[in-house]
Specification:
Length: 64
């Protein structure tokens, strides 16, 4: 199992991009951390989610 934002998820074997598109995250407004390290956007297509990964996805919001 994989933990994404603290929840166990069955996303093992998918690329990060596949997961993000399936869950409809706004790609321009997020940052992703995997096992404590920032994942650069150019790696989303090739980063495969593995069993035991801990992923945090943070959305940026603007306001005033």
């Amino acid at each position: 199992m994989v933990k994404i934002n603290g929840r166990e998820t069955d996303a093992e074997g998918k690329t990060l991009m596949e997961y993000l598109k399936e869950t409809e995250y706004p790609l321009r407004r997020i940052a992703v951390e995997c096992n404590g390290e920032i994942v650069v956007k150019t790696s989303y297509e090739t980063k495969v989610i593995c069993d035991g990964d801990k992923i945090e996805i943070v959305s940026f919001v603007g306001g005033g």
